[in-house]
Amino acid sequence: MANDEVVNGVSERGGHPVEQKLMRQWSMRIKAYAERLLTGLDKVDWTDSIKDQQRNWIGRSQGASVHFKVDGFEGKTIEVFTTRPDTIYGVSFMVLAPEHPYVDEITTNEYRVAVEQYKKEASLKSERDRQADVKNISGQFTGAYAIHPFSGEKVPVWIGDYVLASYGTGAVMAVPCGDQRDWDFAKHFNIEIRNIFKDIDISEAAYAEKDAVITGSDFLNDLPAKEAIKRAIEEIEKRGIGKGKVQYRLRDAVFSRQRYWGEPFPVYYKGETPYLVDDAHLPITLPEIDKYLPTEDGEPPLARADKASWNYSQGDRMEYNTMPGWAGSSWYFLRYMDPHNENEFVAKDKVEYWQNVDLYIGGSEHATGHLLYARFWTKFLFDMGYIPFDEPFQKMINQGMILGRSSFVFRLKFSYKGEEKFIFVSKNRMDNKSFASELSKLYPDSSLEYVLDFTPIHADISLVDNDVLDIEAFKKWRPDFADAEFILEDNGTYVCGHEVEKMSKSKYNVQTPDELVEKFGADTLRMYEMFLGPLEQSKPWDTKGINGVHNFLRKFWRLFHDKDGNVSLSNEAPTKDNLKTLHKTIKKVEDDLDRFSFNTGVSNFMICVNELTDQKCNNREILEQLTILLSPYAPHIAEELWVKLGHQPGTILQASFPTFNAEYLVEAAHAYPVSFNGKMRFKLELPTSFSKEEVEKAVLADAQSQKWLEGGQPKKVIVVPGKIVNVVL
RNA sequence: GCGGAUGUGGUGAAAUUGGUAGACACGCUAGACUUAGGAUCUAGUGCCGCGAGGCGUGGGGGUUCGACUCCCUCCAUCCGCACCA
Q1: What is the reported pLDDT for A355?
Q2: Residues A657 and A697 in one domain
């Protein structure tokens, strides 16, 4: 069960108890690639946001591992990882994670009961709970002491759940003067806080910056922290008590799932030992089973299959787990290059030809999942010599999500004659708290109690019009609402709340485009989605403006037809204005395509069609070029008009893309915006051949300038030829 | 707390290299037309003002002849991470 399906220890759907169970899982050693996954980010063209998320996730930290001997346990050492080996003389205690394997062994009899008790408490908390519970400092002394590797002093060993078993070695050397968590722990348990920073006050908080000078630390004295780190590592290595080390937060990735729908592993077992199925027997396909459910004793669904239902089986049994979604999503793009190849996943010459994906448009929600796994997988295949690149996606654009507008009903829980009851309260009655009088009317009993406990519940948006709920439809919608009661607005309606969220079946806010396609056609929908705004931006789905795009396509269509709807095209040479409009559009649309600015691309088409309409242009040559230009945006209408233009048989897909010719855009005159002190006051049309001086002269001589000059002389006149004029007064 | 992003009319937005802020579209206002079509056409539409004009890109400051754009600072919203030693 997924974590979010578990609520308060029971399953969200059936309310069944959920217990945690240890399971043997396959996992992939992504950790082995941590460093390369980090450095590889420098050579791909992705957003900083995704790169940072991945860097964060990989969590590289540089430091040292140090071994502390345990007093009275010959040959036993506690290994810790620290990023601040320079503060080693500030160590006044050590903390092990409660799950650390040494805990039982080193705990003295005196502390055994307390340690057992603490371990038990910690084990009841999941890792999530622990993280949510940062404020509470807890821990327990074990009675054991470690030996400081430099000073030889005895250092008490504690256990505490702020130390995570899953990171580093599951143990830390605590330096309260330099680490806030250690400081908090020391304060709480009254442990010595040793200050090894020169002229730094640590009475109120730890000092974590790496800019202090070290003191009271023998060979590290008077060194600034950064140098002391290097020096400390040298010394640690020299004395053989540890070494410089890089630690990653990234964990190995679990690669098995206990469900039916996934690629089966080509693995069989003899006893408890797994073996790989020989290549000759591949592929292993999913066996048929009676129910897609786990077995009675909790084995995955595949355990239901007997040997005969597998297309191949060997040994005592086949593997029951299946692969996760990221098995396929990590490398499917490679298979696309050579989908019918029976012998290998992709032939060498094909992958050498296609290389990695040039442009990947995908959601940023996969930053630390799919997008990391695919990189890992690609690097592995590169190392194995199967593919000639080690980054899968060269450039990536994260398209924004189209969000939904959810509707909510508000369920009030109350008790009546000792019985728990629910009623749905309309939004405004809830907001202004006027529901109470209504409730006591419906339940006229002095023993009525209610708690101010409103639960917003998603209502299907098809049951809601303009935030008003169709009550009868709502009752029929789900059986548990059949007898629902309501407190309505004064006008007798139920008003819902709303929120913009991700579109999702579970939120009942999904809008399908089918109806719009029916009404306006797929071209309109396609262009409207582009027109909504920049590709990377998320926004709620709102069809208010779709008419504008639809009208544009109608207007475009009208250019080809007379008012009776018959095709009417002129075969004469296009006018200068026609050509100017067309070529301006070619240029802009091309530029917009290059920078993935589809919304401005659409508006450039609109401008073009508006201009051609004003020019009453029905010129075949112009319209033919424009149709080709539009075809990636509105493929259906373009294809249809292509036929009307007389290209049959054939498809517009085979037409060559229009080429921009700058000659048509050359202007003899430019309307200069004339500014005074940076404020645009009027425009003045001047020949483009004018020099700076000529422009300046013409502007100052113009009658309109007099008003702003007020008889004075300008301090300065800035002329940017072909652009603007600014007169400084 | 750390990191990333965003902030412009009534609305979605545009301004690509520091050079006319609000293109294009929705909506709205007034009008025309009519075969009444999710039509078409004309004019208007950032705010204040009768006007001249003033103000205006989250707030404040700066650089510049000129700033939505560059710098400093603050605020708000969204996303990701968060006891990682």
Answers
A1: 96
A2: no
List pLDDT tens digits, range A712-723: 788 889 999 888
CA of A493 to C1' of B75 (A): 39
Domain identity same for A638 and A679: no
> Does A583 share its domain with A681?
no
Q: What pLDDT, on a 0 to 100 scale, did the predictor assign at position A422?
A: 86
Give a yes or no: residue A17 inside a domain: no
* Residue range of the domain that includes A532: 516-664
ipTM, two decimals: 0.93
Half-sphere exposure of A383 (CA within 13 A, CB side): 9
Q: Are residues A675 and A648 in the same domain?
A: no
Q: Is the CB of A266 under 7 A from strand B?
A: no
Tell me: do A67 and A216 sit in the same domain. yes
Position A457 in a domain: yes
Between residues A17 and A274, the one the model is more confident about: A274
Q: Is the pLDDT of residue A58 over 60?
A: yes
Q: Which of A637, A664, A691 is the last residue of a domain?
A: A664
| Domain CATH for A541 | 1.10.730.10
Nearest nucleotide to A673, CA against C1' atoms: B20
**Structure letter (DSSP) for residue A261:** S
Confidence of residue A405 (pLDDT cuts 50, 70, 90): confident
Dist CA A476 CA A250 (whole Å): 49
Together in a domain, A217 and A82: yes
Q: pLDDT digits over A147-204, tens only?
A: 999 999 999 999 998 898 888 899 999 999 999 889 999 999 999 999 999 988 888 8
Long-range contacts, A269-273 (Cβ 8 Å, 24+): A269/A315, A269/A316, A269/A317, A269/A318, A269/A319, A270/A315, A270/A316, A271/A316
CB neighbours (10 Å) of residue A134? 10
Instruction: Give Cβ neighbours of residue A31 (< 8 Å, ≥ 6 apart).
Output: A248, A250, A251, A252
The answer to whether some atom of strand B lies closer than 7 Å to the beta carbon of A593 is: no
List CB contacts of A525: < 8 A, sequence separation 6 or more.
Answer: A513, A516, A517, A546
Pick out residues 674-703 of chain A having their CB under 7 A from any atom of nucleic acid strand B.
675, 677-680, 683
User: Over 90: is that where the pLDDT of A23 sits?
Assistant: no
Average pLDDT over chain A, rounded to an integer: 89
**Looking at the structure, do residues A620 and A590 belong to the same domain, yes or no?**
yes
Q: Which residue has the higher pLDDT, A1 or A98?
A: A98
* H or E segment to which residue A674 belongs: strand A669-676
**What does the pLDDT read at residue A210?**
84
Q: How deeply is A231 buried, as exposed, middle or buried, from its count of CB atoms within 10 A (0-12, 13-18, 19+)?
A: middle
Q: Identify the CATH number of the domain in which residue A720 sits.
A: 3.10.20.590
Element (H, E) at A455: strand A449-459
Q: Measure Cα distances from A139 to A167, A172, A173 in Å.
A: 18, 13, 15
- Decide if A549 is inside a domain: yes
Whether any strand B atom is under 7 angstroms from the Cβ of A575: the reply reads: no
Greater confidence (A267 vs A181) lies with A267
Amino acid at A45: D
Which bases of strand B sit closer than 7 A to a protein CB? Answer: 3-5, 11-16, 19-21, 23-27, 38-42, 53-54, 65-67, 79-85
- Does any domain span residue A36? no
Residue A579: closest CA among A613, A614, A631, A619:
A619
Q: What is the CATH number of the domain that holds A230?
A: 3.90.740.10
Measure the CA–CA gap between A484 and A410, rounded to whole angstroms: 12
- pLDDT score, position A441: 84
- The average pLDDT across A533-561 equals 91
Q: Which residue is nearest to nucleotide B35 (CA to C1')?
A: A564
Q: Which of A664, A679, A695 represents a domain boundary (last residue)?
A: A664
Overall number of domains in chain A: 4
Same domain? For A656 and A591 the reply is yes
Q: What is the length of chain A?
A: 729
> pLDDT tens digits, residue range A516-530?
899 899 999 999 999
